[in-house]
Amino acid sequence: MSIDLRARLEKPEPFYFTWMTLPGAIVAGQVARLPYEAVCIDMQHGLSGFTDVAAMSPAITASGKPLLLRILWNDPGLVGQALDAGASAVIAPMVNTPAEAQALVKAAKYAPNGMRSWGGYAAVQAAGLVPADYLKEANRRTMIFAMIETEEALGNLDQIAATPGLDGLFVGPNDLSISLGFGLGKDLKIPKLEAAIKSIAAAATKNKLVPGAFGGSPEACAYFVGHGFKFIAAATDVGLMTAGAKAMQDQLAKI
Ligand code: 3PY
Ligand code: MG
What we know:
This protein is of the alpha/beta class. It contains 13 helices and eight strands. Strands 1-2-3-4-5-6-7-8 form an eight-stranded parallel β-barrel, surrounded by eight helices. It is globular and about 60 Å long.
């Protein structure tokens, strides 16, 4: 059974996780053994489909670390499917309006809080509970993050952050930077972009939400932690492979 993500995120220490773009249960099991606290499978821009995720989920949760899923789109069917696959948290891209944030929460919660449909057998197994106990626990255990990554979402930030049942906000720095007209989010110090990122942290704190962000490098992680973010995608699988190869190549060049 994986750790209780919600209880862990009540602690002040940053929570760093990996971001998987590659499919495969063996790769997932290996990534889960790296020194990060959880594994997120990216179903929006990564290569994993639902059949891949179904096979990767037990390989990740067997390590005791939570599975997180960035879904393809904020669609109620995809939210339910991600939770049914055993995700402890769903990260939904491009949540731009309060109505979209409400729909996201509604799709993720069993009645009376929402309209999640029953049938999450992989989730029941991953939680190590009998079905009736999973039903009682699921609304509390599973966490929902809305990605704030457009100018439109920034305009609706206070209302999105006030959505009952939402657990966190998650910055997509690339899309946010593109949406604000600055291209890929390489320079997080551009004043308008940095002001937007600060406003997202402030909205999360005001509404007791977990502030999250896609980092992807030690520098970006330091930046986000410095701005009060806690739930951070520290590195992608391909990024770690590339960095490891580069570090070794630098050593080999010295032989
Ligand atoms: C973004 O930066 O836009 C993301 O969605 C993170 O991959
Ligand atoms: Mg994005």
